[in-house]
Amino acid sequence: RQSEERFRLAMKGATDGLWDWDLKTKEVYYSPRWKSMLGYGDEELENDPSTWERLLHPDDRGRYTTFVQDFLEGFAGKFEVEFRLRHKNGSYRDILSRAFLVHDGNGSPARLVGTHVDVTERRRIEERIRKEAERNRVLLELYDKAGHLTDRELYEAVLAQAVRVTGSEIGFFHVVSEDQNYITLTTWDKSALDGCTVPDGKKHYPIAQAGIWADCVRLGRPVICNGYQNSPDRKGTPQGHVPVSRFMSMPVMEKDNVRFIFGVGNKPCDYKEHDVVQLRIVASELHKITTKRRTEGALRRSEEFIRNILDTVDEGFIVVDRGFRIVAANKAYCAWNNACGSPVIGKHCYEVSHRSARPCDEDGEDCAVKRVFETGEPQVAMHKHEDAKGNILYVETKAFPMRDAGGGVTSAIETIHNITERHLLEEEQLKSQKLEAIGTLAGGIAHDFRNLLQGVFGYISMAKMDLDQKRKAFADLGQAEKALNMSINLTNQLLTFSKGGKPVKKRIGILPVIESSVKFALSGSRSCYLLSCDADLWAVEADEGQIAQVIQNIVLNADEAMPGGGTVNISVRNVRACGPLPGDKEGKFISIIIEDSGTGIPQQHISRIFDPYFTTKQKGSGLGLATSYSIIKNHGGMIDVRSTEGKGSVFAVYLPASDDETEKSTPAVTPAAWHKGKVLVMDDEEIVRDVAAQMLETIGHEAVCTENGEETIEKLRNAVRSGAPFDAAILDLTVKGGMGGEQVAPILAEIYPDIKIIVSSGYSDNSVMSNYRAYGFSASLSKPYTLEVLRDTLSGLLLP
Questions:
Q1: Distances (CA, A) of 531 to 357, 519, 561, 624
Q2: Is 364 left (phi over 0), alpha (psi -120 to 50) or beta?
């Protein structure tokens, strides 16, 4: 008895609900915790089996009674069963019951002792997890099928899943009009249709006539009706409609309007908030799917629209990623390259456009796409393509950046415009312009030479008539010689801008050249000049005579632009350039800025001022600036002009500075005595040989003439054998059909190392003439040369 009391005390203190059923007396003891679990006080429930059976859920009574009887008859040691007990508030709690048999001294069953654990919340959580898992599985299935279904098939599939996840029997789906005044029955689920005998009829009706079915539209929120038959506003269910006991409707919102009504009905038990959650999630996913479908459809239509536009234009269009692979191309581009869209996609643009295995820039071509990726800015480039038939196409490419959300350039759009026809027309136009320029040049040359030859012929004719008057005849010949010198200057200018007139460079300080040239150009003028310069000007490698000619030409133009006089401002500076100079030149330069305040140059003429024989002045040949441009270009520099009509002009000349910035003075040459020598003259023109021989004899030398290289070599060999070798040889650089001076000179030096070899040519632009020492010559003579120039050249070579 004492042990039983201790057991009862232990039961009172237990956290689980405990019970003890005496099988002989049928008395049942329920612990306080067992009673409080169901909302009762310790004295509110009787301690007998009928209490237990009375609290059991009606659906569980038969199952539980059978279970207990089977257990007792089998005399099993223990059991575990789950059922529902009614709480004092009328709700039912899920109870997990565990029990075991207690035997008496004879081994017969005496008592059944057990525990009750309230697992309602656990089961609710488990059910929620199960429903969420089921819902997620349903949603995944929907997403998987959505791409293959029509809109109606999609609605039906979603509706079927909504019925399933809410435990309903029927489902319905309505579309709401844009003005929110009408609803259209779109579909019922299959089970609802199976039980419906309403003939096909009206499916489109005003919301005002829809009754409780449309409340979710009017209220803009979910509506639950668990007593439809007793609802005072159950309009909208005609005769033969499937019976409805309860339903739940969900509005699917789009912005501020309801787009769909999504509902389920006839759940065996009442709809509750968790059903709203389930249906809302399914409805939300439907909205996402339909929105995505509409967006994708609009995008697809937009892409098709853009594709149709791009495919109708005759310009090539491609999209290129950062790996230079084509990700999109229109028909025109594919047609040029004899390919349809699919083979082009994924290939490198240079593979398709240029038939090349490497990027354009590696082949020395400008690439607009590459510059887009480097700069992030739109770029333009010109290309020469070969189409599928081998025809040459000239194209203009324009590339534009495509950026991601962060602003980074992910790809480039490139348009390819076929400008072959325009290019060919421009070439023809350029040819016409060149022919026109040549015509202008030829006319100018003819005019100037006719004037000069008029002077030559006139004065020679007068000298012939005045032979008996030596003094007058000598003066006439002097004037004829002066005219010939002017023709030489004209020829030199023509050579300078036509083929280059290569400068004979030496290291000089530029300031003395500028000062003397400016003074000479402004002598007798109303204008003056102001000269400013850096303290330590760098030296330059230049042809002093040619640079002086440039300065004189520009200063003379400045003076002529100021007929009333004015000031020519000249500044000379050291400049370190890294691209800001016109033409993007880099390195060390001497800048010579010459500025006047004269009439200026009209803008329409700026682009032509360096053209030969172009001039707007009544006086002047139009060769000055053309010559100056060629001289500076051949020195590796550049010349630029800025001018405002009525305000003056600024000419900027840039000459590369010498690598050695330290000035080095050239030692003065002291005249030395010279002796009469034996000179060999090689020239293929008889008149040149004859006059050279006479000039040599006039200044006291012995002259021997040859016509070609073979004869020259033979003459020297014979002279060396005879013990009377030549002291010097004047070799024509170019001999028609034979060896010229460049080929003959090393052979002569090998035969007789002490011979002084002079190169002579009428082509002053030849590199041999400007850099004669590098080719083994001792001096150079540019044709035509005077007696004084010949004498001075030989006097420096033939020392006693």
A1: 57, 11, 19, 22
A2: left
Contact 166, 267 (CB under 8 A): yes
Distance CA 596, CA 526 (A): 13
d(CA 519, CA 270): 114
In this structure, what token pair is assigned to residue 254? 């789009």
DSSP string, 432-488: HHHHHHHHHHHHHHHHHHHHHHHHHHHHHHHHHHTTTSHHHHHHHHHHHHHHHHHHH
Segment 574-585, tens digit of pLDDT? 988 655 454 445
How does pLDDT run across 277-332, given as a tens digit for each residue?
878 877 777 777 777 777 777 777 776 776 776 677 777 888 889 888 888 888 77
Tokens of 537: 């000007």
Cα–Cα–Cα angle for 362, 367, 373, rounded to 5 degrees: 105
Instruction: Tell how strand 756-761 and strand 728-732 pair up.
Output: parallel
| Distance of alpha carbon 392 from the chain centroid | 26
Report d(CA 164, CA 168) in Å as an integer. Answer: 6
Query: What gap in Å lies between CA 712 and CA 728, rounded to an integer?
Result: 12
The partner residues of 263 in beta bridges, in order of sequence, read 172, 249
Distance in angstroms (rounded) separating the CA atoms of residues 157 and 151: 10
**Taken in order 771, 773, 779, 783, is the CA torsion positive or negative?**
negative
Q: What does the alpha-carbon distance between residue 360 and residue 339 come to, in Å, rounded to a whole number? A: 20
Annotate 274-318 with DSSP letters as a single string. Answer: HHHHHHHHHHHHHHHHHHHHHHHHHHHHHHHHHHHHHHHSSSEEE
Distance spanning both ends of the chain, measured CA to CA: 159
For the segment 618-660, what is each residue's pLDDT rounded down to a tens digit?
A: 445 556 777 788 888 888 888 888 888 888 999 999 999 987 6
- Percent of the residues in the chain that have a pLDDT greater than 90, as a whole number: 10
What is the SS3 assignment for 98? strand
How far is 70 from 76, CA to CA, in rounded Å? 9
β-pair partners for 529: 568
DSSP secondary structure of 583-634: T--EEEEEEEEEE--SS---HHHHTTTTSTT---SSS--S-HHHHHHHHHHH
Beta bridge partners of 101: 112
State CA 785 to chain mean position distance. Answer: 60
* Total count of residues recorded for the chain: 800
Interatomic CA distance for residues 8 and 13, integer angstroms: 9
Cβ atoms 775, 768 nearer than 8 A? yes
Model pLDDT for residues 296-311, shown as the tens digit of each residue: 777 777 767 767 766 7
How far, in Å, are 302, 714, 753, 778 from residue 727 at the CA level? 90, 16, 10, 12
Counting other chains too, the contacts that 492-496 makes at CB distance below 8 Å and 24 or more residues apart are 492/764, 493/623, 493/626, 493/627, 494/445, 494/623, 495/763, 495/764, 495/765, 496/546, 496/627, 496/630, 496/631, 496/634
Amino acid identity of residue 308, one-letter, is N
d(CA 301, CA 77): 74
142 φ/ψ angles, rounded to the nearest 5 degrees: -65, -45
430 contacts 423 by C-beta, under 8 angstroms = no
Which amino acid makes up residue 592? Answer: I
Give ∠ CA 710-716-719 in degrees, rounded to 5. Answer: 140
651 and 593 Cβ atoms separated by less than 8 Å: yes
Interaxial angle between packed helices 787-795 and 686-698, expressed in degrees from 0 to 180 and rounded to the nearest 10: 60
Give which of 285, 243, 275, 5 is closest to 136, Cα–Cα.
285
Distances (CA, A) of 475 to 68, 212, 450: 156, 130, 21
Q: Which residue do the tokens 């036509």 mark? A: 498
- Residue whose tokens read 């008895």: 1
What contacts 256, CB < 8 A, 6 or more positions away?
none
